[in-house]
Amino acid sequence: MKLQRNAVSFSLGPQNTDRACVLVHNVGGSPLEMRDLGEYLAQQGIRVRGISLAGHDGDLKHLAQVEREAWLKTIAEEVMELEDYPYVFLGGFSVGSVLAILSALDFGQQIAGVIAMSTPMRLFQELSFPFGDYFAKHRQPLAGYALEDPCVRHDILTSIRLLDPKGIEGLSENEILEIALEEARYPGVLWRQMTALVRELRSRLQELVTPLLIIHGKQDALNPPESASELYHKAIYAPKSLHWLERSGHFVMTDLEQEQLCFLCASFINDIVLHDRLSG
Fold this sequence. Notes:
Layout (H helix, E strand, L loop, with lengths): L9 E3 L6 E6 L10 H9 L3 E4 L9 H4 L4 H14 L5 E7 L1 H13 L5 E5 L14 H7 L11 H14 L9 H11 L4 H17 L7 E6 L8 H9 L5 E6 L12 H22 L1
Parallel strand pairs: 2-3, 2-4, 4-5, 5-6, 6-7
Antiparallel strand pairs: 1-3
Helix pairs in contact: 3-4, 4-8, 6-7
């Protein structure tokens, strides 16, 4: 079976508002990852753009040919499209949050705040990443033995359901996991691009002064919770807060504490706008 990745971007919420948020999906993922959060933010009066990163047309071979600068360019173009909004926020998931933070560094005061969800601070060849040897040897994001871990199974099942919800209708968990093992292979060049982004993030975090909301699931099997702590401590000059979702895995946007996550994101955006108005 061939997975069909949903690469359709979306626009939600009122246009006649003073605040907008660009939502950035994970590299190798799709805007569908961000859709539920986007709908909630739109209901709170926030203009939302769920973008499709460059190269995400559903073919991993095409994605492997895209340089990381093209992903940053996609975000930059979207931010410039929203220049009429006084308050522009960025929200990212996994490597998408790395891209969001790096974009905030590039845009400076033009970005009012960044929401970082399940942010990796290490990748496969670095010691803190689980199943790193398997990543490096097979260039595949999971190993058969790892699927015995219920947290790993949960996160992998979620990833496939978000990539191709219609294509896996009626399949059992084991059948879906078999598809993941066969289809979710990332070329080595793609891992090198992502690793370079994460390293750049670590090296530049001390430059960040943009308000930062960090959200991480305590049950994240794909990206250790230690990453969130490292991000928090290295962003030494940014106004920041770290929120743990005790029962959630990697895909915090759709997991058990989805309602809490959505509330945290909307409150972060609205509180920054309100504070700026009162102080202005």
